[in-house]
């Protein structure tokens, strides 16, 4: 059991090394990367099985006992996110393989595969890290890999986008480091479980300042308003597979870090009011931004910003129901965002871009593609019976239970945002998918069917379909998922099991 | 607090404020310099967490007292990370300079588009 915890971090790193060695044998490289990620998925399944009942498993790397050693911890929340993330990572990798086979992509696969696996390792380490400094290291591994990925297939536009992205990422990392040094100065430890105990005894004012600092640090990475400006400028510019994985995972890892630090370290009501205001601003500003864009990728990026607000809202409630709602929302959103960005990549095949101005009648060109867009889009807008609806109902119920005028305002903002999301989605639907297709789109379709690269395109379409399928699975499995989310949320708010598991796990 | 400690506090304060000032400039070179200063500030503030900062780690001072090695280990890791990413940032700034022949951060595209939307009304 103890070794299993390290699997999601160690295996992708080894896989990256293998992929680097295999850079001259593209086929072997593709197989080895896919196998690596499949192993991570299997490890995540086993971890979820071990923690589904609410148990927390921990191990100490290097055999030093808790506050001194490096703790790796998996609780139901981490296990759930590990599983969803690794499934999405695997599917996006297969999509990228399809793209490479079809020769569509200008990204260099021999560079892409190793960095992608390093990104996987960073994401997984962020989920399993049991102390602040390793959380920082996990973030840095993930971010450094993402800096390298976003500069793939460089054009002038991408240089500018990646510059913004890198500077913003680096700034938040430095603030994170500052936060760590303050926590260490105050408590003499960076171990999350240990610091949770010791911060409880710290003066309330100091705790509040630290809570706010960490909210800013992760808020920048999670793109909450007013720290969201960099996201719509950098994500849509990157190539499809990369913007898909960024939109699905990177902001969510930051949301995970917010959940972890605000529940475990600072707990209860330290910054709840601030978070509610941030949630309202994020929901409304994000969705208004989405309504005025005319590029599908940019619309999706703004919707992403806006829906981060829902998660912050649930977290601000600080109740089991609220946090359970956030977890359901996280799972749903990771899958749906990735799917939509992949679909946009497929759209780009027909028209070469994703600007709404010159796309029409995609339904007639490719009915399957329309279906691939329609299902996750409905889920995103939160129409019943899709997973987005279930997640929102969970959040709104939690809000109604909590009560208070500010919570009701946030609920109102949430309903408004849902309606406006629907409007944004239908705007895309009507302008891009409805009507008679443009002649050159039909030509493009004929060419696509004839071309020598059909096999690769098929893989792309199938993986996108599989992603849609995962989204539907989330909907169908809503019952068990909700059960798991409530277990995880109860664990998070209690904190006792986590602290106990880490502190009592002796040298292994 | 001892004199070296106070000196460090002042240094960290100067580095943070200078770093953020430079970060807000338009020239990418200055932004990179700002990031470097901020990185130093964060690393030094890690060192500041230890009160016995003047003592050597592990080997011990006159009466065997040592400084806390943990912040130093963390600072070492952090230095490597900031150094690596700064190098990457420099390479990117160079690419921007190659493409544009200057290293000014360009205007926001959306901002300019919105500006253009308003212009016809102004002229009519």
Short structural description:
Chain A contains 21 helices and two strands.
Instruction: Count helical runs of chain A.
Output: 21
Give the count of structural domains of chain A: 1
**Strand-residue proportion of chain A:** under 5%
Q: Which stretches of chain B are poorly predicted, pLDDT < 50 over at least 5 residues?
A: none
| Rg for CA atoms of chain A | 22 Å
Helicity of chain A, as a percent range: over 70%
The chain pair forming the largest interface, with residue counts per chain, is: A-B, 32 and 36 residues
Record field, number of beta strands of chain B: 0
- The chain-level structural class of chain A is mainly alpha
Secondary structure elements and their pairing?
The complex is a heterodimer of chains A (508) and B (124).
Chain A lengths: L1 H20 L4 H26 L5 E5 L8 E5 L1 H26 L7 H20 L3 H19 L5 H32 L4 H9 L3 H19 L8 H4 L5 H27 L5 H20 L4 H22 L2 H32 L10 H4 L1 H15 L5 H16 L2 H29 L5 H12 L3 H23 L1 H17 L1 H9 L4
Antiparallel strand pairs in A: 1-2
Helix pairs in contact in A: 1-2, 1-4, 2-3, 2-4, 3-4, 3-10, 3-13, 3-19, 4-5, 5-6, 5-10, 6-8, 7-10, 7-21, 8-10, 10-12, 10-13, 11-12, 11-17, 12-13, 12-16, 12-17, 13-15, 13-16, 13-19, 13-20, 15-17, 15-19, 16-17
Chain B lengths: L2 H21 L4 H21 L20 H32 L8 H15 L1
Helix pairs in contact in B: 1-2, 2-3
């Amino acid at each position: 059991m103890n070794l299993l915890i390290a699997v999601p971090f160690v295996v992708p790193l080894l896989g990256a090394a293998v992929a680097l060695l295999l850079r001259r044998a593209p086929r072997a490289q593709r197989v080895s990367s896919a196998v690596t990620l499949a192993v991570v998925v299997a490890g995540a399944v086993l971890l979820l099985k071990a923690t589904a009942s609410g148990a927390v498993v921990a191990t100490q790397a290097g055999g030093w006992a808790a506050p001194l050693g490096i703790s790796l911890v998996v609780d139901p929340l981490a296990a759930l996110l590990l599983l969803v993330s690794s499934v999405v990572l695997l599917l996006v990798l297969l999509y990228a393989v399809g793209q490479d086979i079809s020769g569509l992509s200008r990204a260099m696969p021999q560079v892409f595969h190793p960095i992608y696996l390093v990104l996987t390792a960073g994401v997984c380490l962020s989920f399993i890290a049991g102390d602040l400094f390793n959380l920082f290291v996990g973030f840095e591994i993930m971010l450094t890999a993402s800096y390298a990925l976003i500069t793939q297939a460089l054009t002038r536009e991408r240089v500018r986008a990646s510059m913004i992205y890198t500077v913003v990422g680096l700034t938040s990392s430095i603030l994170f480091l500052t936060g760590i040094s303050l926590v260490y100065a105050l408590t003499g430890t960076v171990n999350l479980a240990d610091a949770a105990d010791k911060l409880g005894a710290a003066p309330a004012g100091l705790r509040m300042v630290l809570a706010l600092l960490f909210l800013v640090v992760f808020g920048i990475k999670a793109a909450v308003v007013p720290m969201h400006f960099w996201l719509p400028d950098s994500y849509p510019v990157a190539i499809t597979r990369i913007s898909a994985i960024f939109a699905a995972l990177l902001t969510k890892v930051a949301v995970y870090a917010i959940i972890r630090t605000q529940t475990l370290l600072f707990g209860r009501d330290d910054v709840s009011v601030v978070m509610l205001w941030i949630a309202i601003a994020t929901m409304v500003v994000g969705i208004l931004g989405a309504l005025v864009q005319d590029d599908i990728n940019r619309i999706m990026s703004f919707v992403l910003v806006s829906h981060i607000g829902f998660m912050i809202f649930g977290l601000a409630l600080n109740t089991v129901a609220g946090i359970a709602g956030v977890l359901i929302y996280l799972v749903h959103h990771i899958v749906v965002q990735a799917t939509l960005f992949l679909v946009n990549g497929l759209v780009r095949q027909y028209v070469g871009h994703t600007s709404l101005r010159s796309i029409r009648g995609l339904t007639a060109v490719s009915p399957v593609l329309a279906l691939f867009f329609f299902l996750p889009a409905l889920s995103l807008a939160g129409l019943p019976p899709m997973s987005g609806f279930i997640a929102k109902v969970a959040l709104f119920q939690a809000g109604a239970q909590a009560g208070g005028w500010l919570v009701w305002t946030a609920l109102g903002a949430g309903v408004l945002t849902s309606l406006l999301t629907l409007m944004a989605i239908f705007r895309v639907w009507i302008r891009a998918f409805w009507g008679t297709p443009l002649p050159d789109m039909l030509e493009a379709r004929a060419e696509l069917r004839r071309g020598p690269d059909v096999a690769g395109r098929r893989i792309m379409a199938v993986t996108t379909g599989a992603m849609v399928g995962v989204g539907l699975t989330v909907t169908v499995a809503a019952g068990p998922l909700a059960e798991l989310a409530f277990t995880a949320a109860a664990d998070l708010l209690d904190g006792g099991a986590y602290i106990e598991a880490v502190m009592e796990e002796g040298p292994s | 607090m001892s004199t070296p400690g106070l000196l460090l506090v002042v240094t960290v304060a100067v580095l943070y404020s200078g770093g953020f000032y430079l970060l807000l400039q338009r020239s990418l070179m200055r932004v990179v310099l700002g990031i470097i200063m901020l990185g130093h500030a964060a690393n030094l503030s890690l060192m500041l967490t230890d009160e016995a900062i003047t003592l050597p780690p592990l080997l011990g001072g006159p009466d065997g007292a040592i400084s806390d090695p943990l912040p130093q280990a963390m600072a070492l890791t952090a230095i490597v990370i900031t150094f690596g990413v700064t190098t990457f940032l420099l390479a990117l700034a160079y690419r921007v300079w190659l493409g544009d022949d200057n290293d000014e951060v360009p205007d926001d595209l959306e901002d300019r588009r919105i500006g253009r939307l308003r212009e016809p009304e102004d002229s009519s």
